[in-house]
Write a structure and sequence with these properties.
There is one protein chain. The protein has 382 residues and is an alpha+beta fold. The protein contains two helices and 17 strands.
Amino acid sequence: MKKIFIILSLIFAIFTFVSCVSDDDEEEISGDTDSSSDTSADNGNEGDTDSATDTSSENPTDPTNDTATEPTTNPTTEPTSEPTNPTEPTNPTDPTTDPTTDPTDPTTTPVPDPTPNPDPNADPNCELNCEDKFCGSDGCGGTCGDCGPYGRCNLDQQGCSTCSCAGKICGSDSCGGLCGTGDGKCPEGQRCTSEGQCEVCSCEGKKCGNDGCGHPCTIECNADEMCSADQTQCVKCNGITLGTLTQTYLSGNENSFFDYTAEYSPNGSDSKNHFSLTLYNSITYIDFSRQTFDTCTLDKPTNADGVCAFIKEYNGNILSKLYFPQRGVIHISQLNSDGSFKQAAIVGKAPIFVEIDKITGEPVPNGQCYQIKNASIDANGK
């Protein structure tokens, strides 16, 4: 009996001890919770709200107020690499950094640098002509501006075009280079379009002109007519008479480069309208039918004959219409070292010039044409 009483007393003592320990733990946890709540109430909610309200009301847009403008950084969302600097300058003449001078992208257009660059060896009596021009020749051997190494000046001297073979399989890059296999030509029986694509030569849907490979279509136009741009009819051309050619530039005896202009009549309403002729390498037999527009877009011709000719019409100082030869032969019996010649003969049918687009060189739909009526042409020396 005594043993049973001792065992029961021991069990009761253990139970009492466990109960006391449990009560102490609950009080400690409760105390920690109350302390955390008090701290949050004292330091977080009430104080932060008052501080934010006061700061916002004082000056919500003041960039010097750190409390209002300092961003909260989340270390889990910070970038793993340094961002690029959007204000870092690029080299405007480097085609790898400047999209306006990318020679492989025909959709970009170089921006001209309209800083005149006169020829230091120019004739002191030569009158510079850069008014309303942003690039190209100044008429005295220098330039009115520059299109950079990846552009060429348009013939109206109002802007630049990109030198590129991108997307082309034939023709020129517009700066003297050839596209495609290297010679810029299409296979036999095909012609190169203005977009630099080869297409089969054909007279289908055409009534005059040729099939694109030199073979005439159904109708041959009269001597004073030219086939229309769509090759569906012959159009009568306006007859003009050229005056004596006057040199505007002479490069010297080696690889002589002669540049001429001449007034013509009737001359419309603008005295600046003129005929221009460029001879390179002292060519004396000028066959206009062998010229192509893309070889005459630079200051010096890049075709085999070294010849380019235009008729130019102006609106003030701006080139408004451009005419390019389609046929005709001029034979210069003697070209002197100073660039002068006498009675260069018109051989065969009179030269005809048709209105073309100033950028692409394509004939203008419903455009006009001119026929040179001279029997012979003279040029003065310089």
